[in-house]
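Lecture 7 notes. Example A: sequence first, then its structure tokens.
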Amino acid sequence: MSSVFQFSKLAGRMLPSPIRELFQMIRQPGMISFAGGLPDPTAFPVGPFADCADVLSRDGREVLQYGASEGYPPLREILLAMMAERLEFAVRPNELLVTSGSQQGLNLAARVLLDPGDVVIVEAPTYPGTIHSLRNAGARFATVPCDADGMQVELLPEIVARTVAETGRRPKLIYTVPDFSNPSGACMSLERRHRLVALAAELEVPVFEDDPYGKLRYSGDVLPNLKRLAAGDPHVIYASSFSKVLAPGVRVAWTVADPELTRAMVLMRQGEDLCTSTVTQALVAEYCRRGHLENHMSRILEVYSGKCRAMQLALLTHLAPGSASWTEPQGGFFFWLELARGSSRELFDRAVSEKVAFVPGSAFYPGDDEQIGEVHTGDRFARLCFTFADEPAIDEGCRRLGAALG
């Protein structure tokens, strides 16, 4: 029977999230999941956050009303101060936009910068939500391989030239997660950060810097983000979020970008959700105003660094020598395993039989028909999230994974 609906071309191109599609398969009794990139719910600051709800008694008539598209003023003041400290220069109010999750920031930027068929340069591998959002904007993808030092930015001039030769279009955007990338956990080297900022201006291709994990460093030296290195150059768009450092349920994030771009994004979001929940913004602002965020950061850094060490030890203990290789991450949420043989999809099926789950690497690459130039796939790779499970489950899950690897 034919559908009564005449779907748009966009709806016809939409694909399900490869990670969310796995969730039904892994919700089995006794399953240990390293699949979802989830924070530890036992570390959520439930009590202090609940206490902040008294902001409704004080300011309820304001926060229960429609809010400004740019964001709740008290939260904006906090974010402007936070960004001045992080960037080491003042951010102008017309450069800041509060969004409903950092993915909305990317979506708004894509909607105002891209036309169908435009090319975006992404890391290979990259976050599937980014692929999904950019695909919905009609983008095609040019991929840049990564190593332990992040995106191989030295390849960008060649990739841009090849994209122009093959499509007749210059790339419109470069997307990167410099700190503890999802899924690879890689941290871009300082030399490459400087080179990427210089190339963005030289090639006239803006960079979208997604920074959800930058504050979650467990070892090594803190590196400046791209926006700080750009020192006012409009080619770098910065985005960050409270999802990983507070709780994903708050859905509060922000972007810092050139005023012209920020204004265009504001106008675009007025046709979508009008504004981020003012109630939630008020709760987050009150939480930060009371100084809770600093205390909470100390807590989660202790918890997550312990879990990271636990997974490193468990993988060394339970995986047969030579069966897989990886680099221990200095921060973030993820280990990125490269298998010595076989495909991660086949391993996933065996692992689920052993009651342990992860995400096969192919989820983190655009489809073959979407990629310009060299095609990258993730058949030999697997992403393991270490933040959700407790340490005994991490050890047992890696034992099961070792059994599946054989």
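Example B, a different protein, same format:
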Amino acid sequence: MPKFYYVARSRSGAKETGTEEALNQEDAVTKIQSKGLIVVNVIPEGSELFSSSSTGNSIKVRFKPKHGRVTGEDLTLFCRQLATLIGAGVTILKSLEIISKQVGSRKLYNVCMDLKKSMEAGLSFHEALAAHPNVFSGLWINLIESGEASGNLAVVLSRLAAYLEKEAAFKSKVISALIYPMILTLAGVGALLFLSLKIVPAFAEIFKSFNISLPWLTQMLVNVSDFLKKKIMLLFLFSGAGIFILRKYIQTKSGRLSFEKFQFNLPVFGDFFLAYNIEKFSSEMATLLESGVPILYSLEISGRSVNNLTMADIIRKIKDDVREGKPMRDALERSGFFEPMVVQMVSIGEEIGELPQMFKRINSFYQEYCDTFLARFISMFEPLVLVFIGGVIGVMVVGMFLPIFELAKIGG
């Protein structure tokens, strides 16, 4: 019967090596797992893979990467492929080898090779990931550490992949919903600028040749047109400088907090920004807690991951209360950031020991709220913009034709 050399980890994380007789590689994995070990790699004795692993030779690249950076889509696909392969009984090292030949990112390919090399040197998977903090967040590292400790790495990776896919789809939906209004607004502004800089001056020259007194509306349009023609570059320069200064100010802590306060206090849109941040927080908490990450670590990771200083400060206070043994609901209620429904659901989750499920329900509610808000926003924004732009163009047309009507009266 063939022999297989294996590298594995015990439940405590200790590295173990040895040989196992089995019919094939899958049978060897099953036998090793039956000993309560987490399989890292299984190599047939005397195989080419074994010699290449031991000598450290790199695998030849059979693909041409499409780009050099690591995108969210790259990480989501990497996680889903890894979850599928490990769930099918393929070892982590073999999975990394397979995935590295398919990734579209040159940087992610190099990361895969480094992960494989680190694990062959004896590091656990989460320790290897921690060496690449710019690629893998604390969410990845802590979830995978939990999966390795519990022996449910495939399950945890599937949950992580589902989380990444859901967040990517939600983010894409938000961006797609905002693109159309932006295009519509830019097209409207472009049309108004064209009329002001090209059409109005042409009419103004015609009226000047008739040496007539222009109506106040026409004169106002001509004045605006003259101002734009003379000062438009200056306006663009000041606008660009203003945007640059504002962005620099928002990058400071005080500026960021002021901007976030402004966002949350906006009429109508303030509720959306609030719901969007709660959706992200509840989604991460549900994924972390469901995967067995302790609540303090879950709060710490969520606080680092959320891209909102106001929310991060609230999460920090929640974590401090939980560390002191206080219920989470008290900190949520005291923050004034969360609606009573969220406070009550978290309170019930704490009492019955179903906190992950409660966070999942909170997440579903807020994701549906955000989807509905965006759909209504688009349906309302389009007619409002069209009516506004149509009204402005109508006023401009009337203003240009008023002198013509006056001329017609004089001629009559």
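Note on Example B: The chain is about 75% helix and 5% strand. The two ends are 112 Å apart (CA to CA).
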